[in-house]
Amino acid sequence: MMERERGIIKENISKRKIVFFGIVPFAILSTMIVLILSYPALFFSNPIKPLPEISIEKVEFEPLKIIATVRNTGHSEVSIVQADINDRIHSAAMEPDNKLERFESAKVIIPFTWNEGEPYGIGLTTDDGTRFEKNIQFAILTPQPTVKQASYFALIGTYVGVIPVMIGLLWYPFIRKLSLNKYNFFLSFTVGLLVFLGIDALLEGNEIVVRDISSAFHGQMLLIMVAILSLVSLIYITSKLVRNARAKSSESEYPVYTEASKDDISNVSSVHSSRQHLIIRPMALSMMIAVGIGLHNFGEGLAIGAAVLLGEVALSSFLILGFTLHNTTEGLAIVAPMARSKKLAIAKLILMGLIAGVPTIIGSWIGGFLYSPVATIIFLGIGAGAIFQVVYSVGSWMYYNNNKALTSLPIVSGFILGIFIMYITGLLV
Amino acid sequence: MSHPQAIVLAGVLISILTLGVVTVVGSQKEENSTSNTKQFGGHTPGYGTYETTGSVLDPTSLPTDPNNSVVEPMKFLRDFNYGRVSYSADGSTIRDFTIIASDQSTKEISPGVSYNVWTFNNTVPGPTLRATEGDLIRINFINNGSGFHTMHFHGIHPSEMDGVFEGIAPGGKFTYEFLAEPFGVFPYHCHIQPLEEHISRGLYGALIIDPKKPRANADEMVMMMNGYDTDFDTENNFYTVNGIPYYYMHHPIQIEKDELIRIYLVNMLEFDALNNFHLHANLFHFYKSGTNLVPDEYTDIVTMNQGERGILEFSYKFPGKYMFHAHKTEFAEKGWMGTFLVTEPENAVNASSFSNITEIITNITNGGSS
After folding, report:
1. Is 0.80 topped by the overall pTM?
2. Per the CATH hierarchy, to which homologous superfamily does domain A54-136 belong?
3. What is the ipTM score, two decimals?
4. How far is B210 from chain A (nearest CA, A)?
5. B19 in contact with A, Cβ within 8 Å
6. Do A93 and B52 touch (CB under 8 A)?
7. Which one of A47, A391, B108, B285 counts the least CB within 10 Å of its CB?
């Protein structure tokens, strides 16, 4: 008894020690912070006032006025004391007021007779005389959330997102009739497309970071971080879901090629390798691709809406045609894995098409009416992560169905061609 | 794998991230509930008057804080420093001036804009010094700054009084002593390298040397054209006449109808190759460098390079409000504009003296054209 009690006491003491040593660094750190904040003069004999930094996040053009949304992205409070257009001083008002706390934002209203289609530079000067500028390539009346404008965006979204995906889905019967080698080719072609789309999302996000997001937000890091977060959590979620599904039902439901039946699509049987439970059913793969592409298209929609809002582009019919061609391949990506499924499920196919395409419309509404660069890069990051997760899933599906190798000619050539086709159609955009 | 679940999970993931974004992005300050709205924008023709509950940013209609203003343009306008007068044994006039250079103070150069100006006697532009041809000018110069400074006068004087090769150290003193010659209007400025910096920061002023036979009586003023490069990109952010952008827009210069106006105009603008002055609804006689009593030109625009200057003489025929500004409109739209408010003479006594002046002008004009 005594021994045991002693043991418990010892254990308690050692636990306390652990807690103590865990806290010590925090205690020292907080003491230091308190000291520095209370007596800065003790540490820095000549405290330097941090340079002000503001970023103009959004410029809206309304009849007879220009409205700029500005955020304090520096390290201290800042006052904005002057507004200019094309480097010429103009009377302006600032609401709620012209003093901005760190990260606070406000609107600058500048009465101005602007001309549609012309470039403008909007400048703001802080109380130390530093001028910050934002250039707009193409002034256009800021879209107001009217039914007319919303249906215009919906039309663009339909052309850019929904129709091409639906057209791509029509490859379903074609893909279904292919031998495994040819099928592998199209599947890896899909992977190529997806890799391109994933990189494209990251690059597009980076463009927005460079253009609209102050360095204070570490936009590039945010973008990559969100992408990784989305990738890792989606991989975790899907593998968990697959495991649960396996546990509930017999594995024979999940068609997987055996080595013997590699070239015979109709001969589908189950394989009981130890890793097999991680492979996802083709229908589920298609759905995941649809969701991933949907997220990507949501980001694309945001970018299109924002481009209209920010006057970055005049959406020409050529540009829309380019997007349409570019996105048709997305439909192919969805049907490719699904072709392995026994049953033809037209309703599901259409549902997937809508899941992949409709987010473009929603994205263009949000991007066009409530543009926020930070939100846009977060969505682009999620989209990129989701796409890379699909790449991972399709890749592992192919890996286990091709004798654990991805180096066959159909696979490699399909992958390369997939990326190349995206690049070529991307030139149209 | 059941795909509805995947969709739901993806949805949840998106919503959580969206919420996060919305909280960060939407952290705008709440609107003030007080309904004290202010008007802005109405003074520019073609632009409507707008109302705001927020702050008005408008250097064209708001003054600087008088307690920390870089200069009081209305006081500076007609402020001539004749020095402390004494007489030498031979009876000639000696004028003593004390000029203190400093480079540590931050002052308001436009409403809300603080800038570390370098000053002669605490203002930009520095004081307007005035003497008569033949006077002995003695400048007791004290460098109260943190770096070397000098005073370099345009005009005729010995080498050692030129303020170029012997920089005055911080805390140092020097007496510049020279005869006022010839008559005219001259800039003075610091001549320490980098010259562009020492000048653009504000170390300059005007020296007026009157001819022995005084010019005709007039309402005299000095106008110093300058600029400020507040973000140090070797381009001016502000252009002014007499130190504060737009000042004479909201504080018109009051003059009387038919009264002779004489402006000593100096261009101390840095970075831009030229600057100019345009008078509305009128023409002026221009005396280049002020070194001649006969006008060089009868015009409404005079263009000057860096350091150039002259004298303008005119009078207004009709009462009312008249603009003057740089006809390099970029400069005008960055602060170099102002207004004259021409009123009827206050009493008949003044009116009679005006007719005399007009006569004198007419004589001069005739003399110039013959």
Report:
1. no
2. Immunoglobulins (2.60.40.10)
3. 0.79
4. 38
5. no
6. yes
7. A47
